[in-house]
Design brief:
By secondary structure, this protein is of the alpha+beta class. It has seven helices and eight strands.
Length: 243
């Protein structure tokens, strides 16, 4: 018997001429990959539509758990919660594509349930859908996400002059490797200590927005094996240039 699964879509790749492989992060089983046979043909599939698998859609699926390193199949799929603003807001759509790349890399080895992490993603996506002041949303989300994946910044001694990106700790001595200092260091720790709804109150220049995001991406590169900067980073920076 199949039981409904909660799932967040992460992306699709083409398989053959008419099929897709969809990656989904599920509440019950972690990361799962599914073959969507014939979904690109003109023949109408009344149960499963390609549009369901847009990045970071919140779905309800009927599907068995995949065997290790095997593609699964989906019997039925539908939207679990419909977004009210994300599909119609260019800034939010850019954030969705960027975050889908980040999340996919973060959960690529998560093949078992991690309900706390799933709930974190779902709550933040719904927050994004329901708020308009979002220019630092992605930075806040990525910094908070590090708490779940093992390299949350050590906030002790926050008055020290340097934040060592490699150790994840503050330092009173200039590190040999990559580090933050001055305004960007202060912004990091300001954002870490804030609730999502208060981040929009931060005054930040266009240039510092870009530097801030790049520093967080750099932090992921250092601490998450095989993490690559999302391809959509520059597009995102351009869209938020005047936000």
């Amino acid at each position: 018997m199949l039981y409904p699964l909660e799932a967040i879509t992460l992306g699709t790749i083409k398989y053959g001429d008419s099929s897709l492989i969809a990656s989904c992060y599920t509440k019950q089983h972690g990361l799962q990959s599914y073959i969507l046979k014939g979904i690109l043909t003109s023949r109408v599939n009344k149960k499963i539509s390609k549009s369901l698998f847009e990045p970071l859609n919140l779905l309800e699926l009927e599907a068995p758990k995949n065997s290790s390193n095997r593609l699964g199949y989906i019997k039925e799929a539908k939207i679990d919660i419909h977004y009210s603003s994300i599909p119609f807001d260019l800034r939010k759509k850019a954030l969705i594509f960027f975050l889908a790349e980040v999340i996919h890399q973060v959960v690529k080895e998560e093949h078992e349930a991690n309900q706390e992490l799933y709930v974190f993603f779902k709550e933040k996506l719904l927050w994004l859908d329901n708020h308009q002041n979002i220019s630092l949303f992605h930075v806040k989300m990525m910094l908070d996400l590090t708490r779940f994946i093992g390299f949350y910044p050590n906030t002790n001694n926050s008055s020290d002059s340097f934040f060592d990106l490699e150790s994840g700790c503050m330092s009173s001595i200039k590190p040999y490797g990559k580090y933050l200092e001055g305004k960007i260091k202060k912004l990091w720790f300001c954002i870490l200590g804030m609730k999502f709804e208060n981040v929009s109150s931060i005054n930040i220049t266009k240039e510092n927005k870009k530097i801030l995001l790049n520093s967080v991406v750099n932090y992921y590169e250092i601490h998450l094996q095989q993490f690559k900067p999302p391809k959509s980073t520059e597009i995102l920076n351009e869209i938020f240039r005047s936000a």
